[in-house]
Amino acid sequence: MGDVLVIAEHRNGHFPKTTLVGINAGLEMARKRGGNCIAVAIGDKVDAVAGELAKYGVSKVIGLEDPRLITTLADAAAQAVAALVKKLGAETVMATATAMSKDLMPRVAARLDAPMASEIVAINDDSSMMRPMYAGNVLATIELEGAVRVVTIRSTAFDAAGLSGETAPVEKMRAELDPATLKMEFVGFSEIKSDRPQLTEAKIVVSGGRGLRSGENFKTVLEPLVDELGAAMGASRAAVDAGFVPNDLQVGQTGKVVAPELYVAVGISGAIQHLAGMKDSKTIVAINKDEEAPIFSVADFGLVADLFKAVPEMTEELKKMKH
Amino acid sequence: MKILVPVKRVPDPATTIRVLPDGSGIATDNIKWVINPFDEIALEEALRIKEKQGSGEVVLLSVGQQPWQEQLRTGLAMGADRAILVRSDNPLDTFAIARIISKIVANEKPELVIIGKQAIDDDSNQVGQMLAELLGWPQATFASKVEIGGDRCTVVREADGGLETVAFPLPAVITTDLRLNEPRYASLPGIMKARKKPLTEVPVDSLGIDLAPKVKIRVMMAPEKRQAGRKLGSVQELVQALHTDAKVI
Q1: Given an 8 Å threshold on Cβ–Cβ distance, is A190 in contact with B239?
Q2: Burial B96-127 (b: 16+ CB within 10 A, else e)
């Protein structure tokens, strides 16, 4: 049949750009597999979100509702999604790779006896897929064999779906859950609030590394530059491990993968694992006092300098440019 | 409490990975093999739980070839009690691995399975979750803090935009994230003791599982290498270049 189901992530009545990226990849997969692309919003009340999703080119939007789905606990969500896949006879289930979908989708795959490909970066015409391995040092072409396949996609590898000019039908369905088998309990969520753009969506990302030496320096030295550029702030694993900044900012193989227009790496040496998270950025700038730092091998523009002088200077230069 | 810790043998993260000219795999001649860093964190957490409870058993499990014994011995040296090596000479996809582990779980009946969130060679981040579903157990992925009280577990997870806390009864599967703990080094006495700890081999065919791969790697290649650009002499030059050449500001 070739139908594609895209799990459309949303929170507080909105969906992030990464959800539209997932829909776009779903549309491409559906084209290549000769089927329809259907978006699915899961939650307790999804009317508003489903109505919005319907404008982005999918054939249909399904709002899968149940009070127990207000949080996306993987056991309940996997049951609901798998039951829906079977009901619709869909061939491929997709989602943009986020912490939520990484938690959920392998469970969906196991429940459906389906092979899964994580973080694909391309769909070939013969619908084989490409995905990175070994921290992005290898690009593998893979094939999934099964009546149903599960795929997550790397958010930086596809464009976001645009408004199609039409509105698809929205269908509300009750999720099929077996409460006796659900044992997970949501206790709480401590949100890391920020007024800055999301790391995965920002046009400009400024990341700090261990070279900044403290969380205080992130605030006093790096953040003025981040804000002057209207950028999102990221960090190397070393800076997060040292407790300078929250883990949510980590860019790298095992953190977030970003590909903004401009990536500025400040006091970051450029370990393979960090490069894996940012080497597809359009323009890369590196500021580091060590001229041998590996980051310079991928930087379009490098500045060998003491960041404690160079960064405030750069913030000033940018301010001057505006006036 | 019995804790099962599946560990994978992977190339040391600092290795320069080279794709073979025919794209059939990576060159292995220069590789130093280690325990997957996330699995090491899983083992460390298991050892801490056992130490805190004052009793219990930590069992290692690997699915691979004979040389994988090396990494299992390292794990035993860190403090695990015994190890199981499911011998398989053929490549296995994540689903097959999950199925194999679930068979061992059925035999061993651990209260907890702790596994790394992803293997740094494959980067799939699937096995722990697949295993939990196959077993019908709760899961807590990307754990940054684990607390066990009686037969109940509370885990703080690294989720999108913040930290999520979930709770569930045991048995369960937990996958580890970087900041859960810092693994210990194997001590010399530990290394000596490890030699005598039980390491059992189980042929994979004896488990009666359909292992035919459903994820097939057709070919591997090196991605386009990014070229180094140029070094600039001053902040002013940099800002100018970004404005005029790159046109990003």
Answers
A1: no
A2: bbbbbbbbbbeeeebbbbbbbbbbbbbbbbbb
